[in-house]
Amino acid sequence: MIRKTRLFTPGPTPLLPAAQFAMAAADIHHRTAEFRNLYRKVLADLKTFVGTRNDVLLLASSGTGAMEASVANLTSPGDRVLVLTAGKFGERWTGLAKAFGCDVEVVSVPYGQTFDLESVRKALKIETRAVLMQATESSTGVRHDVAGVARILKETGNDALLVVDGITGLGTTHLDMDGWGVDVLIGGSQKAVMIPPGLAYLAVSDRAWEAMEISLNPRYYFDLRKERKNAAKGESAYTPAVALIAALGAALDYIAGQAGGDLALGREQLVDNAETCAAMTRAAVQALGLRLFAPDAPAAALTAVLPPEGMDSGLIVKELRSRFAAIVTDGQGEMKGKLFRIAHIGLFDYMDTIAMIGALEQVASALKFPGFQFGQALTAAQKVFAAESGLQRRSSALAAHAESMTPAAASATTR
Amino acid sequence: MIRKTRLFTPGPTPLLPAAQFAMAAADIHHRTAEFRNLYRKVLADLKTFVGTRNDVLLLASSGTGAMEASVANLTSPGDRVLVLTAGKFGERWTGLAKAFGCDVEVVSVPYGQTFDLESVRKALKIETRAVLMQATESSTGVRHDVAGVARILKETGNDALLVVDGITGLGTTHLDMDGWGVDVLIGGSQKAVMIPPGLAYLAVSDRAWEAMEISLNPRYYFDLRKERKNAAKGESAYTPAVALIAALGAALDYIAGQAGGDLALGREQLVDNAETCAAMTRAAVQALGLRLFAPDAPAAALTAVLPPEGMDSGLIVKELRSRFAAIVTDGQGEMKGKLFRIAHIGLFDYMDTIAMIGALEQVASALKFPGFQFGQALTAAQKVFAAESGLQRRSSALAAHAESMTPAAASATTR
């Protein structure tokens, strides 16, 4: 049978066709007015997407490059930094901070869990340069409480900078950078913004810009002050990844509902979209008798699922790929063979999600999951979707009703 | 929520990405060696796709253009032609033949049915210039018995030319042009070959080429003899639709399994693919308590479904579009509001099909189909797919076993 390759991976994610076409058409030079106009627009649209008044910068790198830029620009050798780690990407913060000579304090919890905020509070009793954390941990499917950590920083009076890797979190979980007081918020292109890998972006607070002036760590390619100066002129410090920037422009237009399509999205709606896909998937795998790896704080970015007792999760990954060209990921590092991960980041809709669940049922049948019956998972997902779309319809109707009652307010918000 | 537009229409059908990219890249002139090489390759690959030793020609027109070319090149005013009609496209043959002055005899059956071959046999007792029919009737979802009509022509000794509109039939039903003795077999680009509308193709038998020499009907743009002469030189008589031809080349590579991908397809496998999608869909809609419009001879090209008693089918079409951007078609002409049609032509896989059925369940719930429960349709489709893929796996295993028993034959077929 025909099998169209479909990515259900937590990056790269499915590409937006309009972005693919923009990328293919991007035959422009980067030191021209044409590029500067594009670059200015993309940086401005990124601010809207991130939801911040802070400057947002783009780097030709993977997300890890922006993580390195944060450490290199904000710390000096010997600085105490606190890493909150609960998985492979938390561990990356530790590796990075150590590479730049920081004195690394770690609050860690086992894979699949999130932090106890009291441990974070205790660890912040000492003067600290920066707190490094993830918004969501892609290796385990856990959502961390960024707002809670930000609140503790305020409550304890610790003036550590809060640096958040939102690479899989942006567009899949609500993040209020300015309201909460996040100092650096990092994103990557191959995630919720629906384009290929190769770009990272980061929003930087005033406090963080000030801190950069006293940092003693070496930096050149990732010198954010230089990028900021150039960005003010509509340029990048070094050769930018032009085609990816053009793709990003098209994707941000789509997300903002400015590129036709039948639905005005926007950042918040993109998060809600991932939440619905995740809720359907969680209900489905539990109906199959499987357990969630992160039941207490599941991220909408991805659902990590434990295989049936005694089965290697790699077998499920392999069957989904060979039978349906549906690509999900196995566990990483120590979790290899112990869980599989289905992502909901970016361009997934109801049809993608229900199809994935259908394919998973076929695999469950072929691999003889205990007690399996066709329809178990699909029915559970259908009911979740029907309930959620019913709620959405009711809230839209309420909003329409409210608008109709206040014509002045309604016309004021009409663009 | 995000809604990706998905066509489940009996043309246009979903586009193959590799064909889209080839189309975008086709910046070539049509009177060059580069184009001639492309054109020769596409015409040769079309012969393989159609499965014939006859010449295959391409026209820059819709499928109706190739239908007109058949009538204009093969008939003279006053010729008796027999039209077999069971829907809107059968009626198109009648209109065309009358426009060219033919004496049109019609064997017709009500929409949703196929012909009684005995009526055809009776109608062929008189000398007839051509029999005009569809392989599958897109307006009703019926499959006609082309082999049966061909056999009757031989049995009755009537030397009428057999002209078959295979526009939705090619790639969705088995057609053995040379073995059965079909004289003209017509296809369109926006169908099983996965590219946009704008090209028609037709395979022409030796007998049909001879018949053209005595036809008195006027023809210029659609003069097939001129096209054949030019095609022998790798050219088209008039300006060809270059980008569509490049797209067709890429699509035929994909269908033949020559364009990477994880599955070698081929013409027969493409038909089997449509059969599986259709079987899943038929089981699903019947599990919903709906009736098939063409239960006796359902085509794999599309499934035509009657709505619940008293409901306008347009409502189902509208809900699928507005909730899921899933585009299906309502009935045409006199069937408007009375049925809806879900297509399986070309680039559909398991995931597309199960997603469509999931969306249909959501619509059934919203529209309160009598007795509806979530999982009804999906479970029925899942069981059909599991049974069919089990059969395929067993037949692959048997074939592998047979090959292992005959090493000489196995090595002979290895490329």
Question: How would you explain this protein's 3D organization?
Answer:
- The structure is a homodimer of 415-residue chains.
- Chain A is of the alpha/beta class and 415 residues long.
- Chain A has helices spanning 17-25, 33-50, 63-74, 88-99, 117-123, 146-156, 177-180, 206-212, 224-232, 242-255, 267-287, 313-324, 350-366, 376-405, 407-413; strands spanning 6-7, 55-59, 80-85, 103-108, 130-134, 136-137, 142-143, 161-165, 184-188, 200-204, 302-305, 326-327, 329-330, 340-343.
- Chain A folds into two domains: 6-10 and 265-397, Aspartate Aminotransferase, domain 1 (Alpha-Beta Complex); 17-255, Aspartate Aminotransferase, domain 2 (3-Layer(aba) Sandwich).
- Chain A has 15 helices and 14 strands.
- In chain A, the strands form four sheets. Chain A has a seven-stranded mixed sheet with strand order 2-10-9-8-5-3-4, sandwiched between helices. In chain A, strands 11-14-13 form a three-stranded antiparallel sheet, covered by helices on one side. In chain A, strands 1-12 form a two-stranded parallel sheet.
- In chain A, helix 12 (313-324) crosses helix 13 (350-366).
- Residues 403-415 of chain A have low confidence and may be disordered.
- Chain A binds chain B through residues 1-6, 21, 24, 261-263, 265, 269-270, 272-273, 276, 323-326, 347-352, 354-356, 358-359, 361-362, 365, 374-375, 378-379, 382-383, 385-386, 389, 392, and chain B through 1-6, 21, 24, 262-263, 265, 269-270, 272-273, 276, 323-326, 347-352, 354-356, 358-359, 361-362, 365, 374-375, 378-379, 382-383, 385-386, 389, 392.
